[in-house]
Fold:
Amino acid sequence: MKPATLLVVAALLSSGPAMAMCHVPQPRLVSAEYFASKVVVQATLTKVEPVLEQKDDPLSVLAYVYTLRANRLLRGNIGGVFHVYEGNDSGRASFRWKVGRQYLLFLFYAKNVQAWALDGCGNSGPMTRAQPALDQIQAIQTSSDGGVIRGIVTQSNLGTPVSGVHLEARGTGGIFTGVSDHVGNFEIKVPAGRYTLHARKKGLKFRTHELSYEKANDLTIQPGGCVQVQLVPPSP
Structure:
């Protein structure tokens, strides 16, 4: 990539948030990230280029541009050679990028930078540790059943879990219910389709956490898939 192009990318990235953080709840489930991703691909890293905020300062790294060669496409469409942009912030992937190494990548298209990107808190990573995720993807691709709505209810954004919350998923397949357990977790199995999730407990109301992966009022379940939701009380 030419230096001039990198400077344009730097300008785009600098207009976005300076920092990033993990969405909730964690850990991100493979079945949820698979369906939330535009592309899932096995690829080999061929080049790493820094995007500098100041072109003459090698320490002013704003982001990195990764050039990869697609080896096996598992979902969506992407070119044989493609680029992934990753901000140099707290949202970076937990694994190390190394030229020549193969990776399993769950990608989405980031409109603010007009580039492919990944969730640094998700399931992307080196192929050497990707087999469990690949096994789950194979199961998803051969599934004709419904899916699961999973999540957690907490007292605040960083608060303690709330047990005994009654949850109701209403949508395509009908009405399905569940109750949060002693650590606030819940799971509701539903047929494939679209749903809204409602939560109630005497004296308490709940809303979707600002950083929740999916929104309770708009959930889509694919065959073999799931969604992840975190619920909290309304803001004061």
User: Anything to note?
Assistant: Confidence is low (pLDDT under 50) at residues 1-19.
